[in-house]
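User: I'm putting together a teaching handout on how multi-component assemblies are represented. Below are the sequence lines for each component of a complex, exactly as they appear in our records. Could you produce the 3D structure of the whole assembly as structure tokens, so the students can see both representations side by side? Please keep the chain order the same as the input.
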Amino acid sequence: MRIEVVNTGTELLLGKVVNTHAAYFGNELFKIGLRVQRQTTIPDGAEIRTVLAEAFPRCDAMLVTGGLGPTSDDITREVVAEMLGRELRLDEGILATIREMFRLRGLRQNPSNDRQAMVPEGAVVLDNPHGTAPGLHLPADPALGSPHLFLLPGPPRELKPMFAELVLPALVQLLGEDATPPAWRNFRIYGVGESSLASSLEPVLGGIEGLELGYCARLGEVDLRLIGEPGPVDAAAKIVRRKFSEEIVAESEAPIGEVVVGLLAAAGETVATAESCTGGLVASTLTDVPGSSAVFPRGYVVYSNGAKSELLGVPPDLFEEFGAVSEPVARAMAMGCLARSGADHAIAVTGIAGPDGGTDEKPVGTVYVALASRREGVHCRRHFFPSDRLSFKQRVVRLALDLLRRRLRGFPLPEKERKMRKPV
Amino acid sequence: MRIEVVNTGTELLLGKVVNTHAAYFGNELFKIGLRVQRQTTIPDGAEIRTVLAEAFPRCDAMLVTGGLGPTSDDITREVVAEMLGRELRLDEGILATIREMFRLRGLRQNPSNDRQAMVPEGAVVLDNPHGTAPGLHLPADPALGSPHLFLLPGPPRELKPMFAELVLPALVQLLGEDATPPAWRNFRIYGVGESSLASSLEPVLGGIEGLELGYCARLGEVDLRLIGEPGPVDAAAKIVRRKFSEEIVAESEAPIGEVVVGLLAAAGETVATAESCTGGLVASTLTDVPGSSAVFPRGYVVYSNGAKSELLGVPPDLFEEFGAVSEPVARAMAMGCLARSGADHAIAVTGIAGPDGGTDEKPVGTVYVALASRREGVHCRRHFFPSDRLSFKQRVVRLALDLLRRRLRGFPLPEKERKMRKPV
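Assistant: Of course. Below is the structure of the complete assembly, with chains in the same order as your input.
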């Protein structure tokens, strides 16, 4: 099934709002084995007619967002009715719902809202419990050469439930009963680059019929997606699990912070953090996870050397002898954090986030990451992530949390330093 | 000048990456008085030819992202050269730069990277200091009916500097010397909602000819944009400054963390942080700013009550009497942080980020934010931001940093609690 997306909204083209619909549709459709062939953004207003007419012959279904509201430039409903030669009729049920919604919120009913109760003949109404404008499904009309049209509201909190609950099932039904949606799995992997992953897997998985692979690399992490018939996907998943048993962070799209918090909770253990160059981002990433308070009692953000000594007991002569960005300091931070927090594990990071502060010996992007654990002792390595300040912080956070994940899973910690593969 | 944007990238249509280019272009072009008429996303591969051919007659300039890399589905350069009948020639300068970049990073040079040094005849090379593939500008060719084509790299960290430094100036030049780009100003405002801002300003500014207003609200912050002829924009800016002298965070798009770090540096003062519910995000936001080490010596992330007492000296009986989320605890955290860190200011936050942990008296979204300063003493208020966990954290961080901004600017701190207008 060929699918296109059209987003209407002047604010999207002015850059006032980032278009997240396109990514949302892509993700959801992928799960039923469909792909968006083209996505187009146009301003509110007359342009919708041209874009629809161009797209009709190219696709079997179109997802159109926006343009269903009460203002004068919301004209999608009217344009579609006209293009398909359908009359618009007032739907008393929708009208009553809209009026009741306004009454409940104590708002004046604006007559322009009544337009939202107009329905083209032959359209299926898609209820919108989160807003006033319902969505509309106009089935394909072979005589006119029009595809299935799904007219959907613009605001994400209205669009997403409608899409998940009404549009996705309708698409599955259109795919036909024989066409069972494909199976799919996502593996979130840390510690193997996208190209190494591909060159390791493709010789083995390339031969499996009915299987498709997708990769997405993101600041040190790679998502590997398997999609296809259930048998081949299961067979491939087994191979991936065997080859990368230690590097698989999650068989889902769970962020690494969530995985680590879950492992700590299951083990009944805790972690504390001692951060210099990440400046609190390790702690913030852990505390993004609901329930993290059970496993994360405290963190130290020790930007100054004074704070490193005073809060973590790092001996001041280490700064003179080795520098604040050094293995001895990272180790002392981790040990001090472990001892003073009483936690079971302590993560410590010290590095040079840039853009200034680098030297020939320790250029911007150099970082020492240490993990101290009550039972297993201290592990510390130097790494190198020369990138902009915010990406550097993110990469270091992922690396640090992955060390803890490995330790909690009982895997050996990597001996080699990590370096960015691609130059920045 | 009619402008279209084409983004190539299968990952954008699969929903693995949100397309932020479109919003970025919209924002930047707005500043020189241009608007994007249409934006299209297509997969990597052959589709680029069709989309370019369709768009040529509709526009004067096209911004095309992606498809310049080394892999086999990166074909934008080759397709454009063929459509315009230009030969591709190896540019020895680019080749040398690419090879040097690989050498410096100790990476093997992959022969497929050499393709990135191919340049169509007549193209202007746009240097890419952040990656291997340079951008290309192919001037409009009236004989072929082709618009100005700007072929740009996909990764945002490569694209944005190239666009700002090379493409935007080229577009200004193409607009012609008579067509002076409009003046524009951005005011970043904290503490006034979008609708209050509009209803306060529009009666006054609505009458100014040659002026256009734009608003963008984002987790407590509002950007107000003025655009138009220089005179009207200046006149309007004076009015905005007079009406919102205290609420203007920046007359730019600078994040509030950058503003606060700048004010601290100018005053030669420092801040320390004591965070419970924000879990390190205040510290991380400050340390996102280069040079923050001069003004931010340390932060405490005190998720457990034990940590609040041990690290900040919060008397344990306060937890029993008032609860960890209370004004006395927030005040004690701020005072303890100030005393123990030796900083000039201390920010403390304690609240309920959710989704669990709320009570009738203190529902999810409740937060106490305190600011203690050596000279001015302690300020503390209760606020209410019922939203998802991550938005809650962001809103609290903005509020806390804005308190410090006001104090550093010598403005009174707001007496009233802040509440979200719309329930989420």
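A couple of points students might notice: The CA atoms of residues 3 and 398 of chain A lie 36 Å apart. Chain A has a mean pLDDT of 91.
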